[in-house]
Each structure stands twice: as C-alpha cells, then as structure tokens.
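The data layer described in this paper is built around a simple, fixed record for each protein. We quote a single record here, exactly as it is kept in our systems:
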Amino acid sequence: MSADGDAARQVVRAAGGVVLRPDSDSYEVLLVHRPRYDDWSFPKGKLTRGESDDAAALREVEEETGYRCELGTDLGTVEYVDGRGRDKVVRYWAMTVVGGEFAPNAEVDLVAWLPTESARERLTYPHDRGVLDLAIR
C-alpha cells in the first residue's frame, strides 16, 4: 500500500495487431467482434508470464482470428482504463497474413475485412481509430 493507504493500481499488459491486406489503392483492415463485450476492435490479448510483446501479439492474433501473421511496423502503445477499472497498456503492430483461416471461437464470433473508412466507422473505441491512423499512414 502507498503512504496514503491506497493499493497500487494493477497494470494489465496486452498486445495485438492491426491486420492489413492491400486493396487496389488502399487497404482492408481486419476487425474482430467479441460477443462478450458486443464490440468491434482489433485482435489483442494479455501477455503470459515471461512472454515478449511481439510474441504475445502474434499469438493473440492467431488465437482470435485463426490467421498466422508476420509483424510489420510497431505502432506503439495505447493506454486506457479497462472495464474492471484497471490500467491497461496495449502494444500494437501492423501485420500481414501469411496463412490460416478464421473459425468462430470462444472469444471472437465474427471477423470483417473492411476498407479503412468503413473500419474506422465500425470500431467501437475511439483509441482504436488512432491506432488505425498510425497503421495506414
């Protein structure tokens, strides 16, 4: 506990990807729908003990989408307070698919490949729009 009696805030570390594929003169962006939250976002998840950010990002994208990817540009981190009141820090990379296919799973029931402007409109969280902007610049 700190001197004022408050417990230190727990920080949740996570990683994920903005998965892109070329589409004529722009990109299509992969979004995931999580029925637990009824939201549309990028695939991401918590790091396991001892796991690096980049390994977690690749693992989480594959677990949620079925797509094996390769890392592109490091897009940096986004910080926010999650639904449980914990500080969350998520590090993202731009990614491209190298194999696999989607099948609904416990976390993600739908995916959508959308043009960037449609993806921007569908994203549930404003901080995801900023990450998208970094990925397509």
